[in-house]
Every structure is written in structure tokens, then in C-alpha cells.
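Predict structure. Chain length: 204.
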Amino acid sequence: MSEFDQKAKEWDKNQMHIERTQAVASQLIEMVTLTPNMKAMEFGAGTGLLSFYMKDRFEEITLMDSSLEMLKMAEQKMDQGDKMKIKTLFFDLEKEDYTGDPFDIIYSQMVLHHIGNTGAIFSKFYSMLSPGGILAIADLFLEDGSFHDESVDVHPGFEPGKLTLILEEKGFDSINFSPCFVIRKQTDSETFKDYPVFLLIARR
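Prediction complete.
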């Protein structure tokens, strides 16, 4: 069982997760013109927190995640109306190629720093979006490595300029970044540290 499978049942009980999701959703609505006929995909959706906040703005939503337990928690939250609009997809995009219908928007929060090859995942996002489609990613600005403990192999956040270059190389344009949230995290028994989160918007 993966780390995220183990955390699934408690994920939505973390108030910071709720507050961060609300902030990301609010910033996304402010930065992008969304239309109700859009087909959306949340990458690394987990329990679908962001998609449940955004569900009334899209025609349909696919929750993609490689944690089956997280997706089970998302399904438990769905009412009958949700089930007509939202579907879960147990899929590891790092290891597999998606061959389904394209999306008008792909979004994620706090997932990119867990992805080993960001360039490869951006290429896949590009191929999965319709022409003019939107990529929206919320993640950490570059930090000192203290956000995760040393046993976790992740990126220590990102520099917007470097991400922009990678995205442009993969074909994206109209790339914008905006700060959207600050995670305050206890790093030891006496110390709290702030970790700013950005929202990136790019177009295919």
C-alpha cells in the first residue's frame, strides 16, 4: 500500500487541505475564463477536493490518480448528481500513456513535486489537451527541502522561470504564475515555517 493509500481516509480531515483547495479554486476562477461545456481532468486528484469545489463549472470531470484508496474516498463523497458528471480513473500517467478523449482543462494541486520527470509529464499533458486547452498547476515555490522529510524523494518546489522554459519547450504558451496560498508547517517541536504555493496557468 502506497503512502497516499495509507493517508486516504484522513486526507479530507486536514483543515489546511481544505483551506489550500479553496484558495487554489478561487485563484483559478480569477485567472481563467471557464465555460460550463468544458471537459476537465484533475491529475493526481486524490479524494477530489479541488474538483468538488469546481464541479459546477464544468460539463464533466475525470479524477485521475494512481492511489486506488484515494479514489475510493472520492467516490464515497459523490451524490447521484455527482456520479453523472464525475468519474474516477485509476491510472499512473508517469508509467502509461493516456489514449482517451482530450480535455479542455487539466489541473492539479501539490502533485508536480512528486513527479520525477516534469518535462515528460508536461509532454503528456500537452497531448491530452484540446487546442487552446488550459493547464493549471498549483505547487510549491522553490524551498530549502524541509517541506518533506529526507526519506521522501521529491522536488523541493520549483522556480517559475525554469518551469516556464520547460513548458515553452513542450509547446505551451501564455504562461502565468500567481501566488495563491501559504502553507504554515511545523518543522520541529518549536519551529513553524511558511511555504508559499503558486498557481501556474499555461495554454496549449
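Summary: The chain has one domain: 3-203.
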